[in-house]
User: What shape does this take?
Amino acid sequence: MRALCILLLGGCVEVGGVTPALRVEPAAIDVTVELGAPPPVVPLRALLVHDDGTEQDVTAQTSFGLDGVPLGSVAGGVLVSDGLTGGTATVRASFDIYAGSAAAVVHVHGWRVADGTPAGAVAAFASAVPTAVDAHLDPQDGAVIPPDLGRMVLSFAAADADDAHEITVTAPYLDLAVIAPGAAGPRQLELTASEWGAITHTARGGAIDLAVASVQTSAPAASHVASAHLAIADFDASSLVMGGIASADEPPGLLRYDMHAGTAARLFAQPAGTCMGCHLAVSRDGARVSAVTFDSTAQQFVGLEVDAHSGAIVAKSDPTSTSQWASAGFDPGGALIGAWQGALTLRDPATGAERAPIAMPDTASTPQVSPDGTQLAYVTLDAGFGAAASQPAGNALRIRSWDAAHATVGPDVELVRDGGGVALPDFSSDGRWLAFGHTAIDPDRVNELPLRSSAIRTDGSGTQVALTADPLDQLAHWASPVGGNKEPMVWVAIVSKRPVGGAAASPQQLWLEAFYPERGTISPAFHLPGQSPDLQVLHEPLALP
Assistant: This one.
């Protein structure tokens, strides 16, 4: 029977025996997921233990749940692993007024021998003496990986004679190994969906240790091991839009890097022979993209606004008009801000028609409005108004207060002037930082091509942090909102020609890094997978909402 409780001035005492308890069996769950095999299933029992020691099976009437790491699901008195996630959790049970629990631990183990692996590879690695080498490995030591990245390709270098590789990944509750063939030249190995899924599910918010060993199976005295300690963030990156060339036989156009799929492809099918994709901006809802295209009839570059999903042209600058635009930005309220020969205009987003001129004494190009709609950033050209001022580069980066309702601005604050050129500013989602490119001053112009990139605080403090770390890096822009659970962070996409997989040279493609604004530091960048050898990223990557 249930215990009675008598209220006294001093508190409460029990009479009538021991209070019944709810016991969950098994009391401790410890299972191993074998990748490629059916996920473990653990039947649960809930037993109500009465004060006389008798037990009543109440499993059918008990509600079960799972607290802690989401190891799988609990339904109908059965714990089913998701087949990917390792870690610890608590199985929670409740019946009537009683509650019970059981500890659950899941380990994830994977072992795979890839097709084409030399017959003696496993034995060769078992007998070889591991020798650490400082060989190219991407992702490199210290890199941070977004958990929503849909695939992972390891790129590395090895001695030409090494014909087999052993890849191991270890972390708490995770142990993976892959044996694969090797051939002379740059090396790559893609993890399977289940292998990469096990890593991102189990190590999210933590870290993994990656080791890539190479051996010559005919003479396996030593294996050559490159290693990296990698963090798996607890914050997702965004998909990206950029201008580029998807294949050698296609003109430049708008491309999308899908972070969840880990692939790059055309954003939409564009008309044959059309070139578009430079000087981009994305509307706050991600539905529209502004870009610059070449008008073959007028033989000049003009601005246009396109539907981000269908590619339909929403509005296009008329090259015969006295009110044109080239580069543009979006106000959070939806209006378009166009720039032409240094002058800015507020425009209707549905038609591109001018609503009002924006009076400013200095030139402006590539206008960007802060996410809260209160600030306008732009690059300015000292040479003054004219055709040269339409380019997306200037001598200085400035910011002004902005009032979209009246198309007016406040006094300017010069954020950057360093003797070189500046190009293509991009506000962080909290409005506290502007990412931008540094360019060269040529004898006849300010060069548009970024040579490196930085982020500058928008408060006028002058705090500036380098976003690029390699001489082959060019433009860096934000690849997510500012977020994170442990500390604020934001993903940064970089256009770079860094070699991949030990190659002597590589095309201009996307790399990703983490930026920690409170520390003012960046993580080592890694090459985003799923970019074909023909892919060339030509113009700024921007995060898609």
About this structure: Residues 200 and 456 are 32 Å apart (CA to CA).
